[in-house]
Amino acid sequence: MTPGRPPRPRSKPWVQPLLLLLRLAVTGVGLGVVVGSALKLLAPRFAQGGGLGIPAIDPAPRRLPGGGLGLGRFEARRELSDLSRRWATLAAAQKGLTASGFLLVLDDGRYAELQPDRALPAASSIKTPILLAALEDLEAGKLRWNEPLPMTKEVVGGGAGWMGSKPVGSRFPFHEAATEMIRVSDNTATNLLIKRLGGKTALNRRFQGLGLPATVVNNWLPDLEGTNTTSARDLARSIALVETGEKLSSPRVRDLFREILATSRTNTLIPLGLLKGLGKDSSDPDGELLAYGITVYNKTGDIGIAYSDAALIQMPNGERAVAAFMVKGPFNDPRSAELIRAMAGAAAPTLAGRR
Questions:
Q1: Radius of gyration (Cα) for the chain, nearest Å?
Q2: Residues with Cβ within 8 Å of residue 204, at least 6 apart in sequence
Q3: Nearest-10 Cα torsion for 319, 278, 310, 327
Q4: Which of 83, 127, 161, 175 is the most buried (most CB within 10 A)?
C-alpha cells in the first residue's frame, strides 16, 4: 500500500456483468434506430423496385397479414369476357332498349362491362353520388348531422316520398333528409340536399372532382324528362370510393353511408336478378340471398323511360363487388326492368363463387 493513499474499494463480482449488459443494451438501441431509419428511407424503393433489382410490389390492399381482406380499390384488371359477351347478347335481343352495365370485384379487379361510360337518364340512382357528397361535407364539418334544412317552394318535388306533402317552411334534420332520400327515394329530401350542398352547378363540380364525368344534375327531382344523367361506371365508382376508403376516410362516416344505403326498400332489380340467376325466386330476395352468403346494398331509379340500379354486393368469401345497370326505353316498358334482372342474374354464379 502506498503511504498516504486510501485503500481501493474491493469491486463487487456482479458489477462487471451488469456494465456489460448495459453496454449491449445501448448498442442494440443504437443499431435499432439506424436500421429502422434506413428501412424507412428504403421502403418506397422496395415497394417500387427502385434500382435495387427487386420486382415491384403491387400496392393494392387486397389481403391483410393472416389472410384478412383489405379494402381493395376501384381498378379494372381482368375482364370476365364471357360475362361481358353475355350482357351484350341479352341487350341485343331487346330491340328499342339501350343498356349499359358495369361490375367490378374490388378485391382482385375482375370486371365485366357493357357500354359502361354511356351517359343515360339517371332517375333516382343519382341519389347515391349525392349521398356521397353530403357525407363528405358532414365529415369535413361543413354541415351537422342534425342541422335543420328548411323546405322552400323551389325544392318541393312530386313523386316518391312524403316530405313534399308538408307545409313550405317545414324544417327537416340533415340525417332525416339523407336517410329518406335513400329509404323511400324521397325527391323533396334530395332537393333539400342539392340546395344545401350549394345547388346544381356546385354539385356538378363536386361530381367532376370525384371522377364521375357522366353524372350531372340539370333539374330538380323527380326529373321525369330524364335530363339528369349518369353512367354505370360512375354509379359503381360512387359506391366504391367509400368502400375502398378513397373517400370518407372516417370509418364512422363510411358506416353511415352503408347503413343509409341499407335502408333502401326496393329490391326488385339487382337483388331479385341475382336470386333468379341462382335458380330461385322470392318476394323477399334479400332474405333469400343471405342463405347464399350474399348481401346487397342498392339504390334504384325509375322514371318510366329509364330504369337503373347500383349496388354494393358482399360475396360469400367476404370480398365485395360493385355493380350498376342502366336501361333506357319506351315508357313503362317491362322489358327494361327485366333486362336489368337478367344482366344481374348472369353475374350471379360468379358472385356466388360457383365459377
A1: 28
A2: 215, 216, 217
A3: 150
A4: 127
Give the containing element (helix H, strand E) for 111. Answer: strand 110-114
**Pairing mode, strands 306-314 and 320-328:** antiparallel
The Cα 340–Cα 271 span in angstroms is 10
Q: Rounded CA gap, 87 and 283, in Å? A: 25
Residue 170: CB atoms within 10 Å: 14
DSSP designation for 63: B
Task: Assess contact for 181 and 173: CB atoms under 8 A.
Answer: no
Quote the mean pLDDT of the chain: 86
Closest to 261 (Cα-Cα) out of 285, 280, 239, 245: 239
Q: Centre a 10 Å sphere on the Cβ of residue 54 and count the other Cβ atoms it contains.
A: 12
The hierarchical CATH code for the domain 78-351 is 3.40.710.10
Cell of 332: 313503362
pLDDT at residue 4 above 80?
A: no
Residue 3 has pLDDT above 50, yes or no: no
Lowest model confidence (mean pLDDT) among 53-67, 171-185, 323-337: 53-67
Give the single-character DSSP code of 197. Answer: T
C-alpha cell at 280: 330461385
Closest alpha carbon to 232 in 338, 131, 311: 311
Average pLDDT over residues 129-153: 97
- C-alpha cell of residue 241: 370510393
Query: For residue 74, is pLDDT > 60?
Result: yes
Q: Where is average pLDDT lowest: 2-6, 20-24, 133-137, 188-192? A: 2-6
Residue with cell 349499359: 100
158 and 187 Cβ atoms separated by less than 8 Å: yes
Q: Which residue has the higher pLDDT, 35 or 119?
A: 119
The predicted pLDDT at position 355 comes to 57
DSSP 2: -
Q: For 257, how many CA atoms within 13 A lie in the half-sphere containing its CB? A: 31
- Which grid cell is 224? 321525369
335: cell is 322489358
Q: How far apart are the first and last CA of the chain?
A: 93
